[in-house]
Specification:
The longest helix is centred in the N-terminal third of the chain and has 28 residues. The chain is mainly α. Helices cover 82% and strands 0% of the residues. It is flat and about 90 Å long. The chain is built from 4 helices and no strands.
């Protein structure tokens, strides 16, 4: 008995490399779609140079720091108390102790 196309495709998708490729493709495809849409809009002259500059300022000054802040706060290492307490103590001993000694010598 001959296999239907649906069965052949389901067997093909059960292969692990194909599943990994499809996962990667579904993650990357929206990025390239947005790039294509923006390229098409740029060819049509939209947005203007002034709007482009203001969008760049908003991205650099607001959105990128928000992304960094969110990724730092969501990191699993911050859930461990020793990661919050130990680094400031080390920084104090390494950087501030020589500074205090220098100030005591000078003054």
């Amino acid at each position: 008995m001959e296999e239907s196309p649906v069965q052949a495709i389901s067997q093909l998708c059960s292969i692990r490399p194909v599943k990994e490729f499809l996962t990667a493709l579904t993650a990357v495809l929206p990025v390239f779609a947005i790039m294509g849409i923006s390229l098409r809009l740029r060819w049509r002259g939209w947005p203007s140079a002034d709007a482009d500059a203001s969008l760049m300022r908003v991205t650099i000054n607001l959105l990128l720091p928000s992304l960094i802040f969110d990724s730092v706060l969501g990191h699993a290492a911050l859930r461990r108390p020793e990661n919050l307490l130990l680094p400031p103590l080390i920084v104090n001993k390494i950087f501030y102790a020589p500074l205090v000694a220098l100030l005591l010598v000078v003054f």
